[in-house]
Task: inverse folding
């Protein structure tokens, strides 16, 4: 039930201070009071303060198009993840010169990021075949070419860490825990995976970091290096012939590379099932650990803890995917983006990037349609960003019963969402299916179909 339908049913006296329903149609937005902005949290072990966690990704060149850039400005996200830098595009031959004209699209993307006030996270992949183990750009770099890669990264960082580009966040590959045999040749994945290896190629990747990261830091001491976002499909792979990709991070740490990265990035992609199902919590691969967001973060932190390591986590690629294009799916995406982002923030995940802002044609994940007009998830995300920016880390609270997943912010604002338990009951709920944001000190005496406990 939306706020507008609820108002017609119960009257304004019950909901005068319900300031926001995140899930709204792109053509209608409620009037909401403003929220004071406070200082942003800081990334652990980083050298400077970072913005709120909200971010997006765009495919090559898309953010530089005026229509997409304008919508990015309207959205208000802080992070922009870019997968455009191609080593093989810049250096086609071993010991050959660097052709920076190959990164013209990248430079336009950085200009757009600066114009919109977003911080770029730059993926470096697409390696030249003269440097890879296999005949594909999506493959691990051979150890005898680590120094070549370090030299390339030195030149890349030297060129782009200064104005007008201002790049600080460097991501070493994308979904590096994938074996190249599982994807098409020259794919955009990282493909450092090795099915036959105990740690799925993680040790070899860690050895690369030990050579390349010092070169990056020497060029720009303020640079932050992150592990190429881990696909991390499941916590225990039992599929025959697939190896153990979940051990990739262990391999990096076994290689003694803990001091050669600053951030652990990971991805999660739940699939739409039906309107009243929380696809994140009920993802069969991760449900026993709390769902894709919480479960994967817990899994990665447990691995780091065993090695005495504590690094920040970025969830820098995610979406709710589906095979259908019905309104129920797009409205579910709008619910979903709020649920996932709030959960991520509550467990101190320090970046959350939706794939993608524009319409990418990949299982309807884009926040914009083919005409660059907002889908419901865009509006939900936009409202979430506006109303929670500067409020600090939300803290989970059980004050509202088992049918409500509630989070309290530092200024006593509360985010209320139907819990997975309530959604599975298929009965009248003591909460809204869509997330709500309410100021605690002026909560209505009755909300949705029930009443909150006495305070």
Result:
């Amino acid at each position: 039930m939306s706020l507008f339908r609820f108002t017609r049913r119960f009257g304004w006296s019950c909901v005068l201070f319900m300031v926001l329903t995140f899930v709204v149609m792109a053509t209608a937005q409620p009037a909401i009071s403003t929220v004071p902005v406070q200082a942003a949290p800081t990334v652990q072990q980083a050298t400077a303060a970072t913005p709120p966690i909200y971010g997006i990704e765009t495919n090559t060149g898309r953010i530089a198009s005026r229509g997409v850039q304008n919508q990015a400005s309207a959205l208000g996200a802080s992070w922009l993840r870019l997968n455009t830098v191609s080593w093989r595009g810049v250096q086609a031959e071993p010991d050959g010169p660097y052709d920076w004209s190959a990164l013209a699209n990248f430079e336009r993307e950085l200009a757009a990021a600066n114009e919109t006030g977003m911080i770029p996270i730059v993926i470096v992949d697409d390696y030249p075949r003269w440097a890879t183990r296999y005949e594909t750009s999506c493959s691990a770099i051979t150890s005898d070419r680590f120094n070549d890669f370090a030299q390339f990264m030195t030149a890349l960082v030297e060129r782009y860490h200064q104005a007008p580009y201002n790049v600080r966040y460097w991501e070493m590959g994308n979904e590096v825990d994938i074996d190249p045999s599982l994807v098409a040749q020259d794919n955009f994945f990282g493909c450092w995976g090795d099915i036959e290896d105990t740690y799925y190629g993680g040790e070899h990747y860690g050895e690369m970091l030990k050579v390349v990261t010092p070169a990056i830091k020497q060029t720009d001491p303020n640079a932050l290096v992150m592990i190429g976002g881990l696909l991390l499909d499941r916590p225990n792979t039992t599929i025959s012939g697939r190896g153990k990709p979940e051990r990739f991070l262990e391999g990096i740490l076994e290689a003694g590379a803990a001091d050669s990265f600053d951030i652990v990035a990971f991805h999660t992609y739940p699939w739409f099932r039906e309107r009243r199902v929380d696809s994140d919590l009920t993802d069969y691969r991760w449900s026993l650990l709390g769902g894709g967001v919480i479960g994967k973060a817990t899994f990665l932190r447990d691995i780091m803890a065993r090695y005495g390591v504590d690094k920040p986590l970025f969830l820098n690629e995610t979406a709710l995917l589906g095979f259908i294009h019905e309104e129920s799916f797009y409205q579910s995406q709008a619910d979903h983006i709020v649920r996932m982002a709030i959960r991520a923030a509550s467990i101190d995940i320090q970046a959350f990037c939706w794939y993608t802002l524009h319409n990418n044609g990949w299982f309807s994940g884009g926040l914009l349609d083919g005409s660059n007009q907002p889908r419901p998830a865009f509006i939900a995300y936009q409202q979430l960003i506006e109303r929670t920016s500067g409020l600090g880390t939300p803290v989970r609270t059980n004050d509202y019963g088992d049918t409500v997943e509630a989070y309290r912010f530092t200024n006593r604002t509360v985010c209320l969402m139907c819990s997975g338990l309530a959604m599975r009951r298929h009965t009248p709920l003591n909460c809204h299916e869509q997330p709500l944001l309410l100021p605690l000190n002026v909560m209505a005496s009755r909300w949705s179909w029930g009443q909150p406990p006495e305070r």
Remarks:
- The first helix runs from residue 3 to 10.
